[in-house]
Amino acid sequence: MDVVQILKKLGFDEKEIRVYLILLSLGPASVRKIAQSAGINRGTTYDILKHLMKQGLVVYYHKEKKQYFVAEDPMKLERHLDGRLEEMSRLREKIQSIIPELQSMYNRGGDKPVARYYEGLSGVKNILQDVLATLGGERQKEYYVYSSSNLRDVLHKSFPQFTKERIKRGIEVKVIALGEGGKEDMLSQRKWLTKDAGSPAYTLIYGTKTAHIAIDRASMPLGVVVEDHNIARTQQLIFEKLWSTL
C-alpha cells in the first residue's frame, strides 16, 4: 500500500494529502508557493493548511512580514492516529449507551416474518456475523446447521475466522452434514445424513432466525434470513427430531 492510500485511511482527502506531501518536500514555504506546487488555488490551499494545523501536522511563522508554513515531523502522524483511536473509543461508548433505546424503537414488523436478502461473499459474511451477534446475547448459545459440502468452502472463504470467533464467544453448534468432508471443532457436534452428495443449500437456525445460503447459476452466493419465532422454532423441532434418529 502506498503513502497516499495509507493517509486516506487516516481520514485525509486527496488535496490535503497533496499539500501535506509537498510541504514535507519543500520545507518552509509561503501559501503562494505551496498552491503553485500543488496545483490548487490559494484560497483552498490556505483552508487546507488551517485544517492540517488543527491536526497538529503543520505550523507557521512570520519572517519579514511574510507568513511561512512548515510541516511538522512525520512522527506526529502517529499521535494523530492515537487521537483518532481515542475519539473512536469514546464514540463506541456513546453508541453502546444508545443501543438499548434504538433496540426498543426497532420495528421488527409486528407479527409478520421479516426477510432480508444478501449477495456475494460479503453478504454471506454478514449472515455469519449476525449469527455471532444474535447468539452472543442469548443465555442458550446454541444453533443448528444443515451443512452442505457444496457450500462449505464458500462460507469459509467469506469469513475464515468464523469458527475461531464462535468458540471464543462460547457458542455451540449441532451440524447435520450432507456430503463428504467437514470436521468437529470445539463446542460442535456433527452427524451425517448422507456422505454421498451435498445439497444445493446451506441452512442455519439461530435465535428467532433461519438463514438459507445457496449459489446461483453465475456462481454468486445468495442468502436470505427469515426472522420469525414460529418459523425458527418449527425448523428447530424438525432438526432435533432428525438429529435424534441419526
From TrEMBL:
A Pfam family that the UniProt record links to this protein: TrmB
Positions of the Transcription regulator TrmB N-terminal domain: 7-70
SUPFAM superfamilies, per the entry: Winged helix' DNA-binding domain
Entries under CDD domains matching the protein: HTH_ARSR
Protein known as: Transcription regulator TrmB N-terminal domain-containing protein
Organism of derivation: Candidatus Uhrbacteria bacterium RIFCSPLOWO2_01_FULL_47_24
